[in-house]
Amino acid sequence: GGMPSSHSAGVMSLSFTIGYIEGMNSVMFALALGYAFVVMYDAAGIRRSAGKIAATMNRVMEEFYAHRPSAAGEKLKELLGHTPLEVFMGAIVGIIVSYVIHFLILQ
């Protein structure tokens, strides 16, 4: 978790770099963009849900083992995934970084 999503930034930067080099109508760009959407969906959807489940399980374990907290074991990691805003901002950062590197540094 955190702002912005580095996974989203990385895959969007990769996608748009491929788009600049191969062309926005290329199959490679379409594949890279599809891959980016899968990664961003995972970051915002599946992993976020897993984090919410972990938080619930931690609360259940605390209540169940209230008389002996040491028996509950380690807490599950709750900060998994990203909010949709974090994913969106990561995607924007990735596009900007790709643009800056491709057009301002390499040209």
Cα shape: elongated
Mean pLDDT over the full residue set: 84
Question: How many H/I helical runs?
Answer: 3
Distance separating the two termini: 34 Å
Structural category is mainly alpha
Could you describe the 3D structure shown?
With 107 residues, the protein is mainly α. Helices cover 72% and strands 0% of the residues.
Secondary structure blueprint with pairings:
Blueprint: H1 6-22, H2 27-64, H3 84-105
Helix pairs in contact: 1-2, 1-3
Keywords:
107 residues, mainly alpha, elongated
Write a concise synopsis of the structure shown.
The protein has 107 residues and is mostly helical. It is 72% helix and 0% strand.
